């Protein structure tokens, strides 16, 4: 019996209690709930309709807008309610800059005060006292659940300590060393997740006028230490509102996967990214496969659009600001040799069902959409195998041998 684990990911909710946040979020608590115009209630409907399930719910922060205390409590309750609907016994969050008094601590005696008062316990309702103290004092907590190790990291720990600290995340040398020390004292886990708010490596600038400046300071160092552990790691972060599935730029094929979660319900300007959408995810992990092959997973994703509600996230030309449903990760492809191997396996065949390709090469399910596109292009240009892809799908239904004129 395989050990499958499902991770539900929702990030950057930015819930607001009143119209102050109307230009920033689709969830304003003072408004009437209208179907297909309210991401939270629409998701509850989707879960029921599609019978969605998960084992762990992850939220990489910014659950409210500008430390709105009323919306903060509502949003934390909503996240835990979603977990209950999914049947997930575990919820983890990482603190976002909007969840605290990050710019002016005069209005509160302590910038973390509202978070510490949340019920159930934040950032992990199952946390014991030691884990809670670790999160607030050492800026991280570690928990092993469902065969997966979760590290929730607070990258906002230095906010309000300097004039410009709120503009970016930070992980200090001390925190990195303390985390390394704690992890070395534990048995190896099948899979490891670092949950944080800020991105540990820079995204490409939107354009020359909108550079990326808000990444986690010391993020590359943290990523290199995770890679050096020799264990499979996935970093799940929010903050950017920019869905992206990538690998850390490390020296080996064991670099952590970096999952940049799109925003669950923030208002996204149309000029932000081409085709950008609000997104919700369920990531499927096969721990037995991971034990034998290393990091691997499949992403099921949904887009939310006002007036449409939640719909499967398809892949279309020009729509790039999103992670399409069915996307894989973990297998780092060499498109030349991978295409050659597929062509050699089915040499002489004129029609090849994609299910047979998957059966012969199980790793194909775990290539990213970008790597898959390169493999399919190589099959076409060098082996005359054309992919028959249904509109919006990632994987082809079959490969067809081009007939020479």
CATH superfamily of the largest domain: Metallo-dependent phosphatases
Total count of strands: 18
Runs in which pLDDT lies below 50 for 5 or more consecutive residues are: none
Main sheet specs: 7 strands, mixed
Structure write-up:
The chain starts with a strand and ends with a strand. The protein has two domains: 326 residues, Purple Acid Phosphatase, chain A, domain 2 (4-Layer Sandwich); 67 residues. It is built from ten helices and 18 strands. The radius of gyration is 22 Å and the shape is globular. Helix 1 runs parallel beside helix 2 and helix 8 packs across helix 10. Helix content is 26%, strand content 21%. The model has no long low-confidence stretch (mean pLDDT 91).
Which keywords apply here?
Purple Acid Phosphatase, chain A, domain 2, 2 domains, 405 residues, seven-stranded mixed β-sheet, alpha/beta, globular, single chain
């Amino acid at each position: 019996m395989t050990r499958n684990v499902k991770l539900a990911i929702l990030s950057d909710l930015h819930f607001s209690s009143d119209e102050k946040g109307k230009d920033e979020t689709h969830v304003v608590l003072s408004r009437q709930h209208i179907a297909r115009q309210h991401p939270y209630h629409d998701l509850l409907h989707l879960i029921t309709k599609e019978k969605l399930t998960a084992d762990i719910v992850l939220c990489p922060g910014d659950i409210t807008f500008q430390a709105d205390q009323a919306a903060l409590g509502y949003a934390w309750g909503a996240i835990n309610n979603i977990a209950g609907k999914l049947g997930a016994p575990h919820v983890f969050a990482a603190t976002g800059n909007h969840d605290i008094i990050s710019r002016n601590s005069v209005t509160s005696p302590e910038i973390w005060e509202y978070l510490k008062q949340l019920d159930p316990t934040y950032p992990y309702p199952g946390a014991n006292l030691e884990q809670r103290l670790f999160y607030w004092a050492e800026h991280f907590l570690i928990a092993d659940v469902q065969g997966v190790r979760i590290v929730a990291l607070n990258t906002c720990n230095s906010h309000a300590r300097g004039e410009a600290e709120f503009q970016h995340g930070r992980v200090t040398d001390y925190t990195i060393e303390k985390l390394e020390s704690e992890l070395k004292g534990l048995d190896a886990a099948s899979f490891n997740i670092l949950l944080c708010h800020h991105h540990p490596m820079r995204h490409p600038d939107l354009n020359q006028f909108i550079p990326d400046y808000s990444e986690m300071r010391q993020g590359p160092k943290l990523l290199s230490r995770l890679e050096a552990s020799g264990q499979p790691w996935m970093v799940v972060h929010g903050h950017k509102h920019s869905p992206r599935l990538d690998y850390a730029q490390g020296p080996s094929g064991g670099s952590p996967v970096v999952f940049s979660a799109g925003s669950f319900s923030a208002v996204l300007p149309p000029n932000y990214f081409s085709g950008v959408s609000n997104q919700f995810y369920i990531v499927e992990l096969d721990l037995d496969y991971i034990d034998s092959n290393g990091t691997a997973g499949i992403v099921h994703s949904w887009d939310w659009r006002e007036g449409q509600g939640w719909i499967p996230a398809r892949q279309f030309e020009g729509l790039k600001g999103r992670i399409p449903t069915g996307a894989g990760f973990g297998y780092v492809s060499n498109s030349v040799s991978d295409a050659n191997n597929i062509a050699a396996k089915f040499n002489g065949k004129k029609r090849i069902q994609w299910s047979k390709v998957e059966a012969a090469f199980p790793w194909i399910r775990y290539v990213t959409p970008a790597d898959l596109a390169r493999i399919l292009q190589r099959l076409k240009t060098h082996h005359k195998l054309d992919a028959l892809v249904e509109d919006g799908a990632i994987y082809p239904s079959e490969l067809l041998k081009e007939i020479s004129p």
